[in-house]
Amino acid sequence: MDLTYSEEYETFRRDLRGFLEARLPKRLADKVRLGQRVTKEDHEEWHAILQERNWLAGHWPKEHGGAGWDAVERHIFEEETTRAHAPRIVPFGVMMLGPVLMKFGSDAQKAHWLPRILNGTDWWCQGYSEPGAGSDLAAIKTTAERDGDHYVVNGQKTWTTLAQYADHIFCLVRTSKEGKKQEGISFLLIDMNDPGIEVRPIHLIDGGAEVNEVWFKDVRVPVENLVGEENQGWTIAKYLLTHERTNIAGVGFANEALANLKRIAALEHQNGRPLIEDPLFAAEIARLEIQLMAMATTNLRVVSAAAGGNAPGVESSMLKVKGTVIRQEINDLTRRACGPYAMPFVSEALEAGSNVEPVGPDYAAPVSGRYFNNRKLSIYGGSNEVQKQIIAKMRLGA
Amino acid sequence: MDFNLSEERQMLQDGLRRMLVDKVDTKAIARGDTAWSAETWQALTEMGVIGALFTEEQGGFGGAGFDLMVVFEEMGRAGAPEPLLETLLAGRLIAELGSATQIEQLDEVIAGEVQMAFAHSEPGSRYDLERVATNAARDGDDWVLTGRKSVVTNGGEADQIVLSARVSGAVSDREGLALFLVPKGTEGLEIRDYPLTGGGRGAELAMEEMRLPGDALLGEAGDALPAIERTVARGSAAQCAEALGLMERIRDLTVTYLQQRTQFGQPLIKFQALAFRMADVLIEIEQARSAVINLCGHLDADPTTRELHVSAAKQLVGATAKLVVEESIQMHGGIGITQEYDLAHFARRLTMVEHRFGDALWHLGRFARLRAA
Q: Which residues form the Acyl-CoA dehydrogenase/oxidase N-terminal domain (chain B) (predicted)?
C-alpha cells in the first residue's frame, strides 16, 4: 500500500502544469471559471493547442497519434486541466468514437477517421437515445435498411449533445427486428450534411441549448460506414459505456466545484461574518469534502487497477453514482451559499462579451442554472437507477 | 379540532383553482418571454383575492393565516408568478403602521390598482432582518436616504415601495430601523430590474441622497423591526403555502408521467424502486403541509412561538422542496430538465422559495437558537 505517485508520474504532472501555465489562454480559463458559455471556436482552439503535444487524445496509443497514457496519467491530466479551468475536451470523437474504431473498426476506417478526429476536421456527436429509448436503450427504433451499397436511415434521436456543432454523428440503428431487441442493432457513422437530416434544438431548464433532436428521413449512408459487423452494435455500445469511461467519477470537476464553493462561502457574509465560519454551513461543506476525499481514493483504486490491465466493471457504476451525487450536492450548497443572489436570471450575463453585467457578485450568476442543469449528471450516460441495476446484477445476484 | 376549510375558504379555493387553471403560461415564463401577466393580475383582483389577505378593519374580508394559506397554495398549484406576496407584505405594513392619510391608500392596494414592493434586504444582509445599512437622516422636515437594496421582487414595477432604512445605531442593532413609503420615480432612486429564476422580476435599488418628505415615514422612526418581523412571518407563511401548491402540482405531473411512460415493457410506476421513492415524496409533502398549518395557526401568537413556527416551516418546506424538485426531475429523466416541459417552471419556482426569507439550513440554525434561548 503506497498512496504516493511515482516520480515518473510527478514529472508528468510538472510538465503538464508548465504547459497549462504557458499555453492555456487566459480568456478561455476565465470563461470556464466564471461559468460562461464556451463556444465551438473556443473548444476547437483548445483542442488544437493540446494536440501540439499529442495530448488531445493522450490515452490513445502513439501509433494513432496519442501519447500512450495509462489510466494514472489520464487521471492526472483530468485533475490538472480542471484545476487550471481548461475547457473540457469534447468527448464524442476523442473519448467515444476513437476507442470504438480502434477496437472494432476496419483498417480503412481507422486510417480515414482517426486522424480527422485529432486534427479537428470532424466534429462528432452521439446518436444513442430516442424518445422511446432512454434507460431502455436497446428499445431504439431508428431503422437502417440495406439498399444496394447504402443503408437508408429513418427515425429520430434525442438529447444529442452539441449536434448543432457536429458534422458527423455515430448512431445506434436497428438493422434487424428478429430475436432479442439487443441483437438487431448496428453502429453506423453518418454525415450530418446528408440530405434528410434535420437538427432541432432542445432548450434546457437553465436557458442553454446544448442538446438537440436529430431527425432522419431516407438518409442514405454508404455501407462502408458500418462499424464492426451488422447487428453487433449492442456489443460496441456496451464497450463504449463500460470500458472507455474513465473520469466517470468527475473527481477533478468535483474538486474544482468544492474549491469554488469555499471561495464563495468565504466572500459571502451571514450575521456580519464570513459564511464559511458559520458552524452549520461549515459542517455541510465538511460533509461533502469528506465524501470527496474518499471518492478520490476509490477512483484512484480503480484507476490504478485499470493501469495494471484490469478493465473496470461494476466499479464504473459505483463511481458514476457516487461522483454525480457529490457534484450535485456541491452545486446545491453553492446555490445556497449565494443566498438571494441565486434568484436573478440574467442569461445574457453568461455570454462572454455580452456587456450585460451580472446582478450581484459575478460568482452568483451561474449557480442556479448550474444546479438545475447538472441534474443531468445522474440522468445521462446510463441513469443512476440503471447503474444501481448493474451493481445489483453483477454483485448481488439480483 | 377541525382541519377542514370553512365554507367561505372552500369557495375561495374552488374559485381560485378554476380561475387559475391554464391561466399561467409556464412555457413562456420558463423561456423568459414574460415575467408575469397583467391579465392574470386583473382576474385575481376581479375575484377580490387581495381582500382575502386583509382583515375587515383593514378593508378586506380575511387576513388570517388560513386565508393566506388557501390563496397562496392555489397560486403555487398554478405556478402563478403574479406579485401578490408583495402586495401582502407592503399592504400589511401600511395597514399596521400607517397614518390616517397613508391608510387611505389601502383601498387601491386591495383593489389591485397599484403595484407594491417591500425593499428590505441588502447586499450584505442575506436573511438577517435586523441587518440594515441604508441610512436615513433627518434634514429639516425631510428625510434623506442613502444605500442599496437587493433582489427586491417587483421593485421595478411597483408604484409604491415600502423601504426600510436605519435612523440610528450600528448596522445589526435591533433598534433604529424605520420604514418609508417611496413612490415610483422618486429622485435619487435608481432601479435596475431583471427577470427572476422561477418567474416575476426583481430589482436592485440604489438610493443616493434620495429626499423624502416627512410624511413618507411609516410608523415611528427607530422602532420598525417588530412590525417587519411580524410581516415577514406572514410572508413566509404565504410563501410556504405557495411552495406546498407547487409541490403538489409537481407530484401530480410526476405520478402521471410514471404511470404513462413505459420502459422495459412496463410503466415506470411498476418499478418498485421508483414507486417507493415516490411514496417518500408523498410522505414528506404531508409533513410539509402540517408544518405550514402549524405556522398559519400561530401567526398571531406571541413573537417567540410565532418565530419558532416560521423557522420550523421554512426548514421543512425548504428541505422538502429540494427533495420534490430533485426526485421529480430524476424520475422524469431528460424531459425533466427541458424548458418546454411544465416541470421546468415549477421546479425553478419551488427551488427559489429557499432563497427568500432564508433556506432550510439557515432556519435549522435559527430554530435551534430560538429553542435554546
A: 6-105
The CATH number linked to B325 is: 1.20.140.10
Quickly list H helices, B3-63. 7-20, 26-31, 38-47
A198 & A55 share domain: no
State how far the Cα of A117 lies from the Cα of A123, in Å rounded to an integer: 7
Determine contact: B270 vs chain A, CB below 8 A.
no
Which secondary-structure segment (H or E) carries B77? Answer: helix B65-78
Q: How many CA atoms lie within 13 A of A9 on its CB side?
A: 17
Q: How many angstroms away from the CA of A314 is the closest CA of chain B?
A: 19
Within 10 angstroms of residue B201's Cβ, the number of other Cβ atoms is: 21
Give phi and psi for A37, each to the nearest 5.
-75, 135
What is the span of the domain harbouring residue B175? 116-222
Q: How many angstroms separate the CA atoms of B99 and B95, rounded?
A: 9
Could you report the predicted ipTM of this complex, rounded to two decimals?
A: 0.96
The count of domains in chain B is 3
Picking from B110, B143, B174, the residue at the C-terminal end of a domain is B110
Per-residue pLDDT, A245: 63
Residue pLDDT, tens place only, B153-181:
999 999 999 999 999 999 999 999 999 99
Q: What is the pLDDT of residue B99?
A: 97
Chain B residues with CB inside 8 Å of A380's CB?
Answer: 334
Read off the CATH number of the domain in which A377 is found.
Answer: 1.20.140.10
Residues on chain B touching A368 (C-beta within 8 angstroms): 197, 348, 351-352
DSSP characters over B202-232: EEEEEEEEEEE-GGGEEEEEEB-HHHHHHHH
Distance of alpha carbon B256 from alpha carbon B262, whole angstroms: 12
- Name which of B194, B274, B359 is nearest A346 (Cβ-Cβ): B194
Q: For residue B364, what is the nearest residue in chain A, using CA coordinates?
A: A280
Q: What is the residue range of A174's domain?
A: 124-233
pLDDT single digits (tens) B188-238? 999 999 999 999 999 999 999 999 999 999 999 999 999 999 999 999 999
- Does residue A310 have a pLDDT over 80? no
**How far is it, in rounded angstroms, from Cα A332 to Cα B321?**
12
**What distance in Å separates residue A393's CA from the closest CA in chain B?**
15
Structural domain contains residue A98: no
Sign of the C-alpha dihedral, residues B337, B343, B344, B349?
Answer: negative
DSSP per-residue codes, A151-178: EEEEEEE-S-TTTTT-SEEEEEEE---S
pLDDT for A316: 86
**Residue matched to cell numbers 407584505:** B89
pLDDT digits (tens, 9 = 90+) for A362-379: 999 999 999 999 999 999
- Given a contact cutoff of 8 angstroms between Cβ atoms, the answer to whether B308 and B291 are in contact is no
Same domain assignment for residues B43 and B122: no
Nearest to B150 among A284, A340, A375 (CB): A340
